[in-house]
Design a protein that fits this description.
Strand content: 5-15%
Mean pLDDT: 95
Low-confidence stretches: none
Bound molecules: tryptophan
Largest sheet: 3 strands, parallel
Length: about 325
């Protein structure tokens, strides 16, 4: 039996934080055992918001290094840079021509970013979900691990694939497989340390609102010590009145790799004064080996290059085949 295919990507937009790690990259690691996994640094997506070319190169390599440090095994999973596989932009154009403008205008993330980005509402920002659809459809992915906020983009990907298959493929041999989102529940949403109702975000002006993956033990301990809580003794999951409490318990559970039940029991009677040092210590202990591995990997550019080259080749083998099928289905003359 062939394994189901999984593809996911993260944008190389600067400092990675705990939310990127617990909500995405870390969840990929166990999938490698049972799925045929591909992981991508989506640098082309990063061009849709303000960016600095000098920084983009660096953050792209760093993100690939974080994938490895977090436990993605480049032997099992091709790790590649989106812009290295030309098929992504090629397929985007073909898909653009089957995507209705009003499908894109409906995208919640586009509307939110359009407000946030003010002066910089470029065509790429609107086309972002079509590029994402190309990322996914090129690999005939069955499952796409994403956070809740990306679900609408996966639905759009399916709509694009359905429309393309209906218009250009013969019924028995569809060009694209329809992907499903794999919504990561626990850790899918790590919340801000300052407001348990807001996602932890790198664009939050307050650095105190997040744990960056490169924060030192001292910084982590200080942030946890200062982070917002309440005055209730006894900690529990899932109380809508206490979002901070739920978030901090969830972080604790994820970094200790204990079960939710075990953590609920352990913390049922605790005060914040007891819990916070425990959480800080658990976070520091969990991140230390990952930070160490990150530094090893990122200081060896030849190694990073070799991983990205191998990943690019393995990705291209799959992506080019799909691109050719799509070009041919649309009647573009075969290349001579
Ligand atoms: N839009 C995704 C995000 O912000 C990143 C992304 C781009 C992606 N292409 C993808 C995720 C393909 C999964 C599959 O999280």
């Amino acid at each position: 039996m062939t394994k189901k295919r999984v593809l996911s990507g993260v944008q190389p937009t600067g400092n990675l934080h705990l939310g990127n790690y617990l909500g995405a990259i870390r969840n990929w690691v166990p999938l490698q055992q049972n799925y045929d996994t591909f992981f991508c640094v989506v640098d082309l997506h990063a061009l849709t918001a303000d960016f600095d070319p000098k920084v983009l190169t660096k953050t792209s390599y760093e993100l690939a290094a974080w994938f490895i440090a977090a436990g993605v095994d480049p032997k099992l999973s091709p790790i590649f840079i989106q812009s290295h596989v030309f098929a992504h932009t090629q397929l985007t154009w073909l898909l653009n021509c089957v995507t209705s403008l009003n499908w894109l205008e409906r995208m919640i993330q586009f509307k939110e970013k359009a407000i946030k980005q003010g002066e910089n509402v470029n065509v790429g920002l609107m086309d972002y979900p079509v590029l994402m659809a190309a990322d996914i459809l090129l690999y005939q992915a069955d499952l796409v691990p994403v956070g809740e906020d990306q679900k609408q983009h996966i639905e759009l990907t399916r709509d694009i694939a359905i429309k393309f298959n209906g218009a250009f493929s013969n019924g028995k041999n569809p060009t694209f497989k329809l992907p499903e989102p794999l919504i990561m529940k626990a850790g899918g949403r790590v919340m801000s340390l300052g407001d348990g109702t807001q996602k932890m975000s790198k664009s939050d002006p307050s650095d105190q609102s997040r744990i960056n993956l490169l924060d030192t033990a001292d910084q982590i301990t200080k942030k946890i010590k200062r982070c917002r809580t309440d005055s209730i003794i006894g900690l529990k999951f899932g109380d809508p009145e206490r979002p901070q409490c739920d978030n901090l318990l969830t972080i604790y559970q994820l970094v200790t790799e204990k079960s939710r039940e075990a953590v609920a029991e352990e913390c049922a009677e605790m005060s914040w004064g007891q819990f916070k040092p425990m959480l800080a210590e658990a976070l520091v202990a969990h991140l230390a080996p990952i930070q160490k591995r990150f530094h090893e990997v990122i200081s060896d550019q030849a190694y990073v290059d070799s991983i990205l080259k191998d990943g690019r080749e393995r990705a291209e083998a799959v992506a080019n085949q799909t691109l050719h099928a799509a070009q041919s289905a649309m009647g573009l003359p075969p290349r001579v």
